[in-house]
């Protein structure tokens, strides 16, 4: 090595590593193809690497298992869903901010003038009494719901401020918060609020909402050995991915236009239930 090449090498040290949820862009970038998987036959596609029943990997061209690292694909979901593994964390984070102005809520203070013991200060008065809770439906899918105290006076248009994130909907004390609305909220959280949230250990990430589902390489499926030849087994996780694909196709084929609020809710919960079951089987939930 000559002196010129030595002088261009600088000393350095790693001062920290930050882990986060994969973004939608990262999931697509990690995929071997820009085209999403849309049919169950593609779930053991030769493009996803070895092992295969016969033939070679159509991505790197090798037929030797030790030389193929495997290649990811992805499924594009027809509607955003909550990441089943991170709903509780998302709920805790969103509970810290005012959903109207997206600023951090202030601490509770003592109110003496009107006899109220204490009150949570929100930046916007009309949002001060709104709480967020995690609800599970009959299919086992969890979603977030906004709630006003049942003793409070229900004002006309009390949920109208949410229209900026998706839908002007709701005339009751509770209202579902759709994944597509949370996606918009996460995108719009200002830098100052993000900084304050990080001080409390929360980091807004678009990975809280799934719209692309990674499909793992063939090498991560369970193989069986028959007559000395390695072939793909009937992996239960592949069966669950087939159900996800089928449900996605049911949603697409049932639409005759843009989905309304109720359709968004029903589609998201049904698809999320399938994805949750897949993640449980896969062992990544």
TrEMBL record:
It is an enzyme of class 2 (transferase). Residues 43-279 form the RNA polymerase Rpb1 domain. GO terms for molecular function: DNA binding; DNA-directed RNA polymerase activity. Pfam families: RNA_pol_Rpb1_1 (PF04997). InterPro entries: DNA-dir_RpoC_beta_prime, RNA_pol_Rpb1_1, RNA_pol_Rpb1_clamp_domain. It comes from the Eukaryota. Keywords: DNA-directed RNA polymerase, Nucleotidyltransferase, Transcription, Transferase. GO terms for biological process: DNA-templated transcription. GO terms for cellular component: DNA-directed RNA polymerase complex. Its EC number is 2.7.7.6. PANTHER family: DNA-DIRECTED RNA POLYMERASE, DNA-DIRECTED RNA POLYMERASE V SUBUNIT 1. This is DNA-directed RNA polymerase. It comes from Populus deltoides.
């Amino acid at each position: 090595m000559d002196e010129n090449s030595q002088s261009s090498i600088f000393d350095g040290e790693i001062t920290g590593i930050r882990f986060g949820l994969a973004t939608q862009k990262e999931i697509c970038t990690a995929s071997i193809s820009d085209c999403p998987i849309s049919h169950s036959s593609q779930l053991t596609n030769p493009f996803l690497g070895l092992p295969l029943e016969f033939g070679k990997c159509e991505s790197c061209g090798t037929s030797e298992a030790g030389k193929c690292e495997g290649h990811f694909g992805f499924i594009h979901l027809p509607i955003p869903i909550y990441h089943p593994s991170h709903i509780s964390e998302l709920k805790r984070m969103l509970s810290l901010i005012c959903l109207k102005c997206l600023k951090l809520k202030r601490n509770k203070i003592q109110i003496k003038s009107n006899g109220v013991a204490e009150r949570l200060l929100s930046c916007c008065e009309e949002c001060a009494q709104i709480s967020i809770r995690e609800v599970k439906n009959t299919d086992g899918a969890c979603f977030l719901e906004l709630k006003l105290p049942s003793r409070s006076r229900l004002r006309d248009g009390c949920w109208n401020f949410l229209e900026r994130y998706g839908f002007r909907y709701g005339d009751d004390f509770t209202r579902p918060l759709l994944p597509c609305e949370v996606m918009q909220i996460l995108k719009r959280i200002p830098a100052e609020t993000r900084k304050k949230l990080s001080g409390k250990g929360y980091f807004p990430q678009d990975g809280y909402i799934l719209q692309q589902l990674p499909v793992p390489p063939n090498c991560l499926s369970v193989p069986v050995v028959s007559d000395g030849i390695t072939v793909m087994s009937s992996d239960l996780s592949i069966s669950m991915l087939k159900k996800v694909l089928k449900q996605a196709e049911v949603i697409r084929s049932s639409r005759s236009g843009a989905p309304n609020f109720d359709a968004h809710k029903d589609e998201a919960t049904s698809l999320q239930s399938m994805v949750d079951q897949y993640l449980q089987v896969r062992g990544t939930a």
